[in-house]
Amino acid sequence: MYKVDEIILYDTEGVCRISEITEKTFGGKKQKYYILNTVSKNSMTIYVPVDNEKQTSKMRKILSSDEIYKLIRNMPNEDLIWIENDGERKETYKQIIQSGDRRGLIKIIRTLHFQKEQLTKQGKKLHMSDEQFMKSAQKILHEEFSHVLKIEPNQVIPFIVNELKIEHAN
Question: Which Pfam family is one of those matched by this entry (predicted)?
Answer without folding.
Answer: CarD_C
